[in-house]
Amino acid sequence: MYNPKSQDLDREYFPSYHTTRFQNEPEPNLAVVEHFIKVTQQHERDLTENRNIIVENLRYGEGRRVVDVFSDKNTPVHSPLLVFVHGGYWQMLDKSHSCSIVGPLVRQGIRVAVMDYNLCPAVSLEKLMAEFVRFLDWIFRYAELTQVMEITFVGHSAGAHLLSRILNSPEVVSPQRSQMCWALVFMCGVYDLRELYNLESVNPKNILDIDERKAESLSPMLWSYTDVGGWRSTRIYVLVAEHDSVTFIEQSRRFSEVLRNAGFQTSFKVFQKYDHFDIIEETAIDDSDISRYLRNIRNE
Ligand SMILES: N[C@@H](CC(=O)c1ccccc1NC=O)C(=O)O
Fold it and tell me: Which of 100, 156, 165, 292 is most exposed by smallest CB count within 10 Å?
């Protein structure tokens, strides 16, 4: 139990119930998600309508497996690359909700990749994770071909869960490749699926296709991390929002402890004032707390 005081796991695992915004709306939880979708899609439109922005539309596999890479004419050839993995409980959202983070970073000379992935139930969560490993192989190859010298990965919510696979994929992430990783940023993620997999709210009709055994094997909190050596120079940031549920905050805290105990250079931070959604929305604003934090990661 991540929140022993809670009687209502569905609530603990539904981030929208924990916002403190939209309290005048009849259903603040619906309003916050609706707002998130609207704002993030507007960020995508702002970006694609901006004539200074250059977009490469790339494909790493069949179906929804596409990547957009953003830069502008001032982006240095050997610029760092930041890769963003969106959330949505592995069953919703796409790259059109993933562009908030792009503008401020491109203005800093960073190339930014936002990726789509096949969603459940078109694929099982197990298959989705396997496809994510193929994506990692693809993006490292892209970096090698384009002579990117360093990569930072950022995952939000279910995207942070997917991203954790990078720490446990020696078949594609060689020590050389892990040394290219400047930082890994895990935002508001879930790392232990044992409580959520049989919640109808999170996993309706078992669209994730998981049972108890898979819930364990797909939980990064429970993995043993043996190939830590190549990650010595990578900084790992586990972030969560103040207005996430106690369960989400505790999952992040405990995941950061698991990683630190395994030998990774890990820090943990609860971002004050933010909820699960505006922590992403505000990545679009150059001088927001979250944008400044992400910028500092680069400059440290
Ligand atoms: N239906 C969920 C939505 C949700 O979980 C979510 C929405 C946007 C981005 C991330 C999310 N959660 C985890 O991946 C909720 O109302 O909290």
Answer: 292
In a structure prediction context, what are the per-residue pLDDT tens digits for the chain, which is 300 residues long? Answer: 999 999 999 999 999 999 999 999 999 999 999 999 999 999 999 999 999 999 999 999 999 999 999 999 999 999 999 999 999 999 999 999 999 999 999 999 999 999 999 999 999 999 999 999 999 999 999 999 999 999 999 999 999 999 999 999 999 999 999 999 999 999 999 999 999 999 999 999 999 999 999 999 999 999 999 889 999 999 999 999 999 999 999 999 999 999 999 999 999 999 999 999 999 999 999 999 999 999 999 776
Write down the ipTM of this complex: 0.91
Domain 21-169+181-299 matching CATH 3.40.50.620: the answer reads no
Ligand 1 neighbours (beta carbon < 6 A): 14-16, 29, 33, 36, 87-89, 93, 157-158
134 Cβ contact list (under 8 Å, min separation 6): 60, 61, 172
**Residue whose CA is closest, atom 16 of ligand 1?**
16
Residue nearest to atom 9 of ligand 1 (CA): 88
Of 212, 223, 224, 162, nearest to 187 by C-alpha is: 162
Is 202 strand, coil or helix? coil
How far does residue 93's CA lie from ligand 1's centre (Å)?
Answer: 9
Which of 36, 92, 245 to mutate for ligand 1's pocket (most ligand atoms within 8 Å of CB)?
A: 92
Task: Quote the DSSP letter at residue 243.
Answer: E
